[in-house]
Design a protein that fits this description.
Order of helices and strands: EHHEEEHEHEHEHEEHH
Radius of gyration: 21 Å
Strand content: 15-25%
Number of domains: 2
Helix content: 25-40%
Largest sheet: 5 strands, parallel
Distance between the termini: 30 Å
Number of strands: 9
Shape: elongated
CATH topology of the largest domain: Alpha/beta knot
Length: 226
């Protein structure tokens, strides 16, 4: 997979992509992540990327020229499956969307800032808009890190155990069951005996029942989506 991320603050994403699973995925050449500062594509002599909004109002708006110029430069060299704009009014990012994006070959992710981007960018080049939640961030960089992490861990070969991602919360609209490790007895609290039974069928049934119960208590709305 190849992912190009457009931002005016590429340094914000250096750390998340140089650690842990994402780092190993890049070292295995399972994913390539490139950061592009679209300020470099500004035609303004001062390299400005924002201006006051038409019609008045507080805040600044990201200009069309630098972003569209950057995207057109990239698309002239590669065919992209999606050009994603991270926005509070995009579709809510859920596991099924991550599953879908994880099988794509080439993605562009656009990080906005200030009061958003010129609407004409959305009309001209953006193919998909995604929100990671019903709240507002200062910019799209943290959302991009969330998006990339969620997608990349699903690529075959990224995780040590190929089945690990399949048992994550939300894969079947259920929360994960409780998990335990050594020691067996911790401050008087012991591991459920069923997990030590060796009976795979009964363990699987117990895990499913626990997932159902946890989801019913904590996120009942997920059950309505099954």
């Amino acid at each position: 997979m190849h992912i190009d991320i457009l931002t005016i603050f590429p340094e914000m994403l250096d750390g998340p992509f140089r650690e842990s699973i994402i780092k190993r995925a890049q070292e295995k050449e399972l994913v390539t992540i490139r950061l592009h500062n679209f300020r470099e594509y500004s035609t303004n002599k001062h390299k400005n990327v924002d201006d006051y909004p038409y019609g008045g109002g507080a805040g600044m708006v990201m200009m069309a020229d630098p972003i569209v110029n950057c995207i057109e430069s990239l698309t002239s060299k590669r065919t992209y499956d999606d050009i994603i704009y991270l926005s509070p009014d995009g579709e809510l990012f859920k596991q099924n969307v991550a599953n879908l994006l994880s099988v794509k070959k080439n993605l562009i992710i656009l990080c906005g800032h200030y009061k958003g981007i010129d609407e004409r960018i959305r009309q001209l080049v953006v193919t998909r808009e995604i929100s990671i939640g019903d709240y507002v961030l200062s910019g799209g960089e943290l959302a991009a890190a969330v998006l990339v992490d969620t997608i990349v861990r699903l690529i075959p070969g990224v995780l040590g155990d190929e089945t690990s991602a399949l048992s994550d919360s939300f894969q079947d609209n259920l929360l994960s069951p409780p998990v335990y490790t050594r020691p067996y007895d911790f401050r008087g609290m012991t591991v459920p005996d069923i997990l030590l039974s060796g009976n795979d069928k009964e363990i699987a049934l117990w895990k499913h029942e626990q997932s159902m119960e946890r989801t019913r208590k904590r996120r009942p709305g997920l059950l309505d989506e099954t």
